[in-house]
Amino acid sequence: MLLALVLRFRPPSSGQVLRFVTRLNRLLMRAVIVIKNVVGHPVSTNTIERIALEVGNDLEAAERSGRQDILTGEVPVPLLAILSDANTSATACLCGTIGLRVSLPMRCRVVFVQFSRYSNPNCPVAPEACARMKVSPAKMPFGCDRLSRCRLGMLTVILPRMELGHLREWLRHYAARGFRHFWIFSIGHVVLDQRFGNNGEKYWKKQPEADYRLDLSNDDIDQCLENILEDARRDFGLSISFERVSANPKGVGTVQKQAASSVLNRAISDVDWLGFFDVDELLVGDLSVFDEVPTDVAVLEVHQRVFETRWQNGSCRPMSAVHRHYGNVEFNQKLFVRPQLIQNWSRVHAIHASDRHGKVEIADSKRLRFGHFRGKPKHKVETDAHASPSLEHYARLALRPESDTMHRPPFDVILGVMRSGSTLLGHLLSSMGYGRYAGETHTNISHERGVQNAIKIIDEKVRVSKPLWLPTIDKVLHREHVGGARFLSERVDTVYLLHRHPMVIWRSLKDTGWERATLTYLLSHARWLNEITEIVPAHKLIGISYYDIVDPSRTHRKFNRALDAYELLPTTGKRGWGDPIGVIADGRIRIGCEQEDLADAANAIGDIPPELEQAITEHEQLIKRLLANGSERQLLAPPASLNISRT
């Protein structure tokens, strides 16, 4: 296994200094030969120098400021080399089984490359050879550069004129991690393609950090693309399937879905795991995670370290508040799939249960994650790999642990389909002292103001000293806006999972006349509730029936008073979406039992449409799962400090 380390070295009468391999060409070539023999593919001297250049400034700054955590190897450095101007007259070259000491001129810019079984038990170098080296390796976290024994492949869709500068580095990065099969689809010269219509404006907004190279013709871009692919095939022995596809008026997402579905059958014989990552997304960490995934898992979700303001070339500061409180928000997960277990890859960021023959598992982000950042403007497409900072720079930062350790208060979520009682339950729990805020209404935000403002308000509310906050993922924060599995399984203490029969919900939706609440919408939410029971640990789930709240024979609460916590939306002066006719605000709750509701719904609906029948099936499966894992429970008892009347 290839690791980059900074070793401790104490020559006579000197303090702690850095220990490197000379940058002289003959020793670099020796390193290249050893890397080829051990890893199984060639690595160019340019690759070593490029990686070195990316971290050189960091190491030099650390040396000047006395950052011993870096100088002694307490933090990881990426890939296979590091660079610094070091005051030393001796260095060591430990490439594979070769130990070589040479004299260097003062302040020589040098590179260090090492293999070591001490830091990685899966290293192919023989243990006795490592013992002869007498290396005292620096501390490395969780074997951060371990490779996988599985056959790994990668799929991507590119916009060449905008992303060509990243493609060479992207291929080299994954080749160094053992990926051998690539499927690359090119949409074409999108900024000059009128078929994109208004969607084309999106790509122009990525300037200045995206370089469209308008000084080059389409033929020039195509030639650069061909050169990059041929270089990767020759230098790394990669199998690269390249296809040109037509632009779609609906946008890149449609092309991505078509590309993913078309590759599945072809990939079965070539790879064990197939990933779908953009060319500005680099996987970092311990790839041996793939070797440990159970055989009944069809999809492995990998999440990213979020960086600030991607589109405006903002700083590389982690969005710690979002990451800490809510997990991964909106498309922060990418997928690896076992092709033989996938029937249809209809969504890039999620595969529904009906399209796979196996479970979904989430990769431990402490071991495996990806970095996502486009970097600064690129001015030389062919020499882009030497530009700094590059993607590798941000990928390295993505491995660093979260530095912000601010305490996160307990954070609960109410989750349910529209008209299943989520707002009612939120107000009920709030009135009983379980939380200061409850539901969408008490974010004081209208539906039109959107998710970004909701996230901002959430960030403010969870910092208060109150014990709980109970937002509802129902309208403002539903599955399209939150990376559901990650959010619910890791960042939430309790999930109140509401369920109500789909026939009754559909009757209620029709009565309200909401155009956006279609059968497709209902079925999508019903499926998601089922997926949650697969992913979220059972001890975090509390299953609650709508009738636990409104049926006098089943409920534990009285509703003969107004809920004082309810208020009007300040932006509109009107009631929230969850209480369209004001029954919650006035304390008037529609009581009833399930049997009567079902009978009324059946009479009102008549013949059951196919999608409603599917939603009913999903509902029945949900109840079975809740009962199987013991999470179908009644409402919690009120806090002892509150005097709450009970029936």
From TrEMBL:
<protein>
    <recommendedName>
        <fullName>Sulfotransferase family protein</fullName>
    </recommendedName>
</protein>
<dbReference type="InterPro" id="IPR027417">
    <property type="entry name" value="P-loop_NTPase"/>
</dbReference>
